[in-house]
Amino acid sequence: MAQTYEFYRDRADEAAAKAKEATLDNVRDRELRSEKTWRALANQAQRVATDRAKAEEERAAKRAAEALAQE
């Protein structure tokens, strides 16, 4: 199952909250690294979804053009 932008964003937000609450430097650093990774994954998921939607629109336009050409 593909994860969504919202899933990754929520994990990043959780990591940011944990980093803010952390009293130990190593824990804060770990959570900040985690947040950075989750945000990168969220951005990638958003780009993939955008690219898929654009590709689907292009395929639909191509099918419509081919249908008109056959008429």
Number of strands: 0
The rounded Rg comes to: 20 Å
Q: What form results from the Cα inertia axes?
A: rod-shaped
Strand residue content: under 5%
Q: What pattern of helices and strands is seen along the backbone?
A: HH
Major sheet, described briefly? Answer: none
What structural category characterises the helix and strand content?
mainly alpha
In which range does the helix fraction lie?
Answer: over 70%
N/C terminus separation? 40 Å
Mean pLDDT: 94
- Count of DSSP H/I helices: 2
Uncertain ranges: none
Please give a structural write-up.
The chain has 71 residues and is mainly alpha-helical. The protein has helices at residues 5-21, 25-70. The longest helix has 46 residues, at 25-70.
Defining key terms:
71 residues; 2 helices; mainly alpha
Secondary-structure map:
Blueprint: H1 5-21, H2 25-70
Brief digest:
By secondary structure, this protein is mainly α.
